[in-house]
Design goal:
single chain, 295 residues, alpha/beta, Arc Repressor Mutant, subunit A, D-Maltodextrin-Binding Protein, domain 2, 3 domains, two-stranded antiparallel ribbon, 11 helices, 13 strands
Length: 295
């Protein structure tokens, strides 16, 4: 087991680029990370990592050793799963964008861990594009069209949007009858959407209207946009998952409901490996089932 601990430690430290970050993930001290890697280097008579007081980097030998280390770890995990065919266990390191991570995934994870209590989740919520391999994640949930890569992707659902404002805002400024009226309305712009000031609508007769909007408030966080809309600051073009409870409660009103708004695909993405842990496959299936129920 000590050999596997040393190999796991090396793999995590190599991918995260830091003994301190690896130590936090492994719940050990940075000194312990260093000792384990030094033990590997002494055992195999190899220089795996070049390090100084400011940085560390893999040697050419270290890069080859990392590939073979990951193959050993994958194979070991597969063997363990063979002996536990009825039980899912282990850790899933998951990353997801802010709204999905706060609104949708907690429900799916709660149901999944109730059925599989031996699975441990570690979830990173961030709107940045995370490097799965480099940062050691098992799985990502991503919204929008994917960039070409060697990662394995599965479409599990869609991400719908809603145009909304508070009842007070609608009372003061009046209801909208056509998307083009947004050009002169006070809107709350999402800095994450590209382009941020171009909102698209699709009519029942097949027509498409793209409106350039403004309003003086631009935010890069969905929850902040939601609170601005709730407080009557303007009209927001927000993920439906973020505001559906507010719409049901009447705290926000859906505007132009006869027009369809943007809808983006939702994918799960995981490193391209021959052996995918059963717990990851099972969780991806759970995500797809949850999305299908909500559709």
């Amino acid at each position: 087991m000590s050999d596997l601990d040393e190999l796991r430690t090396f793999a995590i430290a190599a991918r995260m680029g830091s003994f301190a970050k690896a130590a936090r993930q492994l719940n050990v001290s940075p000194a312990m990370v260093g000792r384990r890697i030094q033990t590997l280097e002494e055992r195999y008579q190899l220089r795996l990592i070049e390090r100084n007081t400011r940085s560390q980097s893999l040697t050419e030998t270290g890069r080859l050793f990392l590939e073979r280390t990951q193959a050993v770890l994958d194979a070991t995990e597969a063997l363990a799963e063979c002996s536990q065919q009825q039980t899912l266990s282990g850790r899933i390191r998951l990353t997801a964008p802010t709204t999905m991570g706060a609104r949708w995934l907690p429900r799916v994870i709660s149901e999944f861990t109730a059925a599989h209590p031996d699975v441990v989740f570690e979830m990173n919520i961030s709107d940045r594009w995370v490097d799965l391999v480099g940062e050691g994640f098992d799985l990502a949930v991503r919204v929008g069209e994917l960039q070409a890569s060697s990662l394995i992707a599965r479409r599990v659902g869609r991400y719908d949007f809603a145009l909304c404002a508070s009842p007070g805002f609608v009372e003061r400024h009046g209801a909208l009858s056509h998307p083009e009226e947004l050009a002169n309305a006070r809107c709350i712009l999402n800095l994450i959407i590209v382009p941020r000031d171009r909102w698209t609508f699709h009519g029942q007769q097949g027509e498409t209207v793209a409106v350039t909007v403004g309003g003086g408030i631009e935010v890069d966080n969905g929850e902040a946009q939601r609170m601005l809309a709730l407080n009557g600051a303007g009209i927001a073009y927000l993920p439906l998952a973020l505001v559906e409870d507010d719409l049901k409660a009447g705290h926000l009103l859906r505007l132009l409901p006869e027009w369809d708004l943007m809808s983006l695909p939702v994918h799960t993405v995981y490193p391209s490996r021959t052996l995918v842990p059963r717990r990851v496959e099972a969780f991806v299936a759970a995500l797809a089932a949850s999305a299908a129920r909500s559709a």
